[in-house]
Amino acid sequence: MVNVRSTPIREKLFDCMLLGAIMVGCVGLAPAVAAAAQKSKKPAKAAPKAPVAKAQPSSLASDGSLRDPFKLPPPPSEGPEGAPMDMGPLPPGSRGLIIGQLKLEGIVRQGKENPKMIAVLANPANRAYFLHENDPLYNGVITKITPDSVYFKEDVRDAAGNTTSHEVIKKLAPASGEKK
User: Fold this and answer.
1) Distance from C-alpha of 131 to C-alpha of 127, rounded to nearest angstrom
2) DSSP E strands, 94-175
3) Per the domain annotation, does 119 fall within a domain?
4) Residue 89, in any domain of the structure
5) CB neighbours (10 Å) of residue 131?
6) CATH classification of the domain holding 120
7) Percent of the chain with pLDDT over 70
8) 16 and 86 part of one domain
9) d(CA 120, CA 48)
10) Is the pLDDT of residue 54 over 70?
11) How many domains does the chain have?
12) 32 and 86 inside one domain
């Protein structure tokens, strides 16, 4: 005969497991109890139920296939004031900047002997970004930075789905007190 001692810790552990099993059982029985209670009551006029459409997850494409997570989404078509028409969630950082919404705040030279320039651009939330030539944006790329302007190559998709690109120039506004 095995002599198993009952300790307070074992008793509490057993009580917790028993309580957990009861709770799981009650939760599983709750719909059945509610259905039995509904049957005992006299049913009022039941309204016909409309068919419920299942929502597709956002990761599914319109044809039901999954989107490739390693491919960037296609650039959006332009809407009013440079805002894209079919804009979903934008990628974080400079990859999510839309050229039509950017404001040129300043241009900085990297060093006295280095001719490379850095453009200081702000998004509509007034967050500053320091960008170089050939930095990709959501709907284009920075092609050239001069001391007074930044040149972009903007990709635009038309209604037929054809992508065209054109050059956009953002000029630095003269500081107050400077000649135009």
Assistant:
1) 13
2) 103-109, 117-122, 128-131, 136-137, 140-145, 149-157, 163-171
3) yes
4) yes
5) 19
6) 2.30.30.830
7) 59
8) no
9) 61
10) no
11) 2
12) no
Q: Does residue 149 lie within any of the structural domains?
A: yes
Greatest extent of the chain over all pairs of C-alpha atoms, in Å: 105
Query: Do residues 22 and 100 both lie within one domain?
Result: no
Helices (H), the chain: 8-40
In order of 57, 65, 88, 96, 99, the CA distances from 60 in angstroms are: 6, 6, 14, 21, 28
Asked whether residue 159 falls in the same domain as residue 98, the answer is yes
Whose CA is closest to 84, among 158, 2, 144, 145? 158
What confidence tens digit (pLDDT) does each residue in 108-117 have?
A: 988 888 889 9
Geometric angle at alpha carbon 98, from 150 and 72, rounded to 5°: 115
pLDDT tens readout for residues 72-109: 776 655 555 445 555 568 888 989 999 999 999 999 98
- Is the full-model pTM beyond 0.70? no
Structural domain boundaries enclosing 113: 80-171
